[in-house]
Amino acid sequence: MKTEGTPEGIERFISPGKGRGLRALKQFKVGDLLFTCPAYTYVLTVNERGNHCEFCFARKEGLSKCGKCKQAFYCNVDCQKGDWPMHKLECSSMCTFGENWNPSETVRLTARIIAKQKIQTEKTTSEKLLSVKEFESHLDKLDNEKMEMIQTDIAALHHFYSKHLEYSDNASLMVLFAQVNCNGFTIEDEELSHLGSAVFPDVALMNHTCCPNVIVTYRGTVAEVRAVQEINPGDEVFTSYIDLLYPTEDRNDRLRDSYFFTCDCKECTTKSKDKAKMEIRKLSDPPKPETVRDMVKYARNVIEEFRRAKHYKTPPSELLEICELSLDKMGAVFEDTNVYMLHMMYQAMGVCLYMQDWDGALRYGEKIIKPYSLHYPAYSLNVASMWLKLGRLYIGLEKKSLGVKALKKAIAIMDVAHGKDHHYIAEIKKEIADQA
């Protein structure tokens, strides 16, 4: 289906067994840009206020703050004016509630969709292939817990936005929140730190596979879709909805929980990477199958325990202790290359970075990078961001040659994933030049 103004070289079509999808009309080589999609609407995460412009997401020092709420920051007057139609939903409310103003990002994003739909009746440049109103909600598949979470979000919407936003009945809001939960995106920086949440309708049209042929990256608030495999005319364009580190069972648990389907891609059918991802220690007396099963169960539980601990702002020293204790226990059965070990090492590295324990962060990063390169697909952002973190740690610890080598490995991936002209790459090249 081609309509006026749609991107060249791709089309919307009905994918057998998957519903709507995206198909290539011409050949794309690795690194080629298939299409771009500006955000329909978006919000900067609260933690990045003052570091990034609320409107264009530029990262710079000396941003100017909103004179009224003093909580939103902008590059200049043009960015402030550009953001006002959305920021005005929150500005007065922020002043009214003060420190008690705390709607979730999902609530903030949904409020902006409602406001946008009031003022924008025609399709936007973000909806050349799929409109927001066409989003799947899967409302009939939600369990009681998910329904209660949406009800909580609706209550927060009423609480924080009732004076500045007109919205429809609760039934319609239920559908909209369910649509956002299934179709929202998180915008991340070059180290995969969370910058905000957004809706990119045309990008949401792509179906999932665990062997994706495209990758989605961001230039400010614009999504860019690039080929990471060669794509031929007639091929479906596939992205990945989830982190691909984990074994098949875990990936499909996540897909069923969040997106209500089971993946039947080549990787899920053959499970060809699962043995390497679940590597068991080579001992003279190998662990029994039930011992391995029990340790997998423990690993999954500790991952959830750590997630909850972070959510409830557990002190960093206690978070690090959770990581170290779990690594000790799992290490009796799992090799360091096992993905559950890698998950907890990554969390430990993050805590060390937060605590400014650079040597500790480096120790974990050096253990992670080689198995990451094995387990993830080519041109993975997870691998690029790990090389980038390692490079910056090496340089900070006066290991310049190792730092430059790591940064160059990050650039080799990012040239394909982000495009050679991306400002992130220019910034990293400057970091390399500064070491000369």
Task: Explain what you see.
This protein is α+β, with helices and mostly antiparallel strands and 436 residues long. The protein has 2 domains: 40-190, Annexin V, domain 1; 270-434, Serine Threonine Protein Phosphatase 5, Tetratricopeptide repeat (Alpha Horseshoe). 48% of the residues lie in helices and 12% in strands. It has 15 helices and 12 strands. It has helices at residues 77-97, 105-119, 144-161, 170-183, 201-204, 248-259, 266-270, 274-277, 289-311, 316-330, 339-354, 358-375, 381-396, 400-417, 423-433; strands at residues 10-15, 19-24, 33-38, 41-44, 64-65, 73-74, 184-188, 194-199, 207-208, 214-219, 222-227, 238-239. The strands form 5 sheets. A 3-stranded antiparallel β-sheet has the order 3-11-10. The protein has a 3-stranded antiparallel β-sheet with strand order 4-8-7. The chain is globular, with a radius of gyration of 23 Å. The model has no long low-confidence stretch (mean pLDDT 95). It comes from Lepisosteus oculatus. Residues 53-91 form the MYND-type domain. Residues 8-242 form the SET domain.
